[in-house]
Write the structure tokens for this entry.
Amino acid sequence: MAVRMHIISSKLTVDRMTESIREGFDRSLLGKTAKFRSQIDMIVEIFKSEPTKVGDVYDIFYTPGKGVTAKKNGVDYQILIPGIGFKKALMGIWLCPKPVDLNLKAGMLGYTN
């Protein structure tokens, strides 16, 4: 399972991205984020590590039996976050019943809202 984020707007700043990621986890986990606090912080650090610009591509992968890994513009972040529970929480950012952006969810799933 993978999610690819291709940045197409200069309005998506590091602060907005990290705020959306944290809010997405909060929604995905129905506010019960404490269990995954350190893993969430690892994902947030990916987006905080350097400015995001138009044209950047983030890839987040889940490999069964291994865990979650991530790349930016093809460069591996050298992280591995194990666990199906974390994968479900992460993918829930975009796919949970009340995602941060319902139109984005619809687009990811190939339907219109």
